[in-house]
Amino acid sequence: MKTAIIYASVHHGNTKKIIDEIAKSNEVDLIDATQVTEKDLSGYDLIGFASGVYYGKFHQSVLKFASVNLIENKNIFLMCTYGGSEAFKSMESIIDDKHDNLVGRFSCKGFDTFGPFKLIGGVAKGHPDDKDLAAVAEFYKKLIAGGVVNK
Ligand SMILES: Cc1cc2nc3c(=O)[nH]c(=O)nc-3n(C[C@H](O)[C@H](O)[C@H](O)COP(=O)(O)O)c2cc1C
């Protein structure tokens, strides 16, 4: 099973933490969409897109990467970290357009000091925490066992 995770984690590295938790014990290629804009994805069996939520969407670099590089008939999973609420729609519509299969979604809170939240010391402080990391490890384990996982 060859897996790639394309990600952007620009606020506090929250999303990177959950990806690193997966990469720690699984063989995955990590692709930073803020640095890499083109990549042949044909050799991957499983492709993940991971991002913080910014203005209700995945990071523009991840959306752009998916629009440019995603090919049809791939198994896709999505992961996001958020200060307020999860938001998968921006990616799901691309997956639909490209005729791929969404096989899993994971989300958890991520420390957020954007805008006025900074004044109160941020929200979702301490996240992702150990429990979030254990949950993402379990999510990925089920995913590669062939399950469809929606957490
Ligand atoms: C510019 C900006 C916009 C954001 N917009 C949202 C939002 O619309 N909804 C939300 O729940 N969190 C929002 N957040 C909080 C982030 O989604 C949260 O902190 C996330 O964990 C950041 O991930 P990262 O550290 O991997 O970049 C925003 C943060 C920033 C910096």
> Biggest sheet: strands, sense, closure?
6 strands, parallel
How many separate domains make up the residues? Answer: 1
Helix/strand order: EHEEHEHEHE
Portion of residues within helices: 25-40%
Tell me the CATH superfamily. Flavodoxin domain
- Count helical runs: 4
Radius of gyration: 15 Å
Bound small molecules, by name, code or SMILES, are: flavin mononucleotide
CATH domain class: Alpha Beta
Instruction: Please name the CATH topology.
Output: Rossmann fold
Strand coverage percent = 15-25%
Mean pLDDT: 95
Number of strands: 6
Structural commentary:
The chain has a single domain, classed as Flavodoxin domain (Rossmann fold, 3-Layer(aba) Sandwich), CATH 3.40.50. It is 30% helix and 25% strand. It has a 6-stranded parallel β-sheet, with helices on both faces. By secondary structure, the protein is of the alpha/beta class. The model has no long low-confidence stretch (mean pLDDT 95). α1 packs across α4. The chain has 4 helices and 6 strands; from the N terminus they run βαββαβαβαβ. The longest helix has 15 residues.
